[in-house]
Amino acid sequence: MSAPNLDAGQLAFMRGGVSISVASCGSDGLPQLVRAIGCRVSDDGRHVTVFVPEAKSQAVQRDIFGNGAIAVAFTQPSTHRTMQLKSRAARVVALAPGDAQLVEAYRDAFVAEVGAMGFQELMVRTLLSCPPHELVALTFCPSEAYCQTPGPQAGKKLEAGE
Fold first, then answer.
1. Cα(14)–Cα(106) distance, rounded to whole angstroms?
2. d(Cα 22, Cα 63) in Å, to the nearest integer?
3. CA distances from 133 to 7, 37, 54 (A)
């Protein structure tokens, strides 16, 4: 399957103050989920890396080691706009130089996003707290992209410009 063609607006959306949910599934069919606390997206959208707390993502990591399958949903809380990327070739890797700064920038952007909705900064920062040395990176090349915004278009393949 060829990589989805993501446009600059979609890439900016993924890099913004969105909620990032990472899902996997093991050979037993049991789904796993962990909240990511930031991401790195290549300018062409063909390489995506999400950052997760190592201790909270053990089950997801185990599934990725087992089958490489990953699904990542990016949701803007204020609008519920959601896009989902999938791959069957995810890998668990160490953070690269500059990734800790991306995580900090993500926290600031997410605090601003949900702060406008009335959530207290301390609560949000606590939710997203994780020392850099306790983070791992899950990296993948998206093979599928979907609109998952609630409504009649949910589940539709995502096209550039949407």
1. 10
2. 12
3. 32, 13, 9
pLDDT of residue 3: 73
- φ/ψ (deg, to 5) at 12: -65, -40
Residues 136 and 51 sit within 8 Å (Cβ to Cβ): yes
For residue 20, the 8-state DSSP code is: E
Burial class (CB in 10 A: 0-12, 13-18, 19+), 151: exposed
Mean pLDDT of 149-153: 92
Average pLDDT for residues 75-79, to the nearest whole number? 96
The three-point CA angle 130-148-38 to 5° equals 20
* Superfamily for domain range 8-147: Electron Transport, Fmn-binding Protein; Chain A (2.30.110.10)
Supply the mean pLDDT for the chain.
Answer: 95
Rounded to a whole number of angstroms, the distance between the first and last alpha carbons of the chain is 20
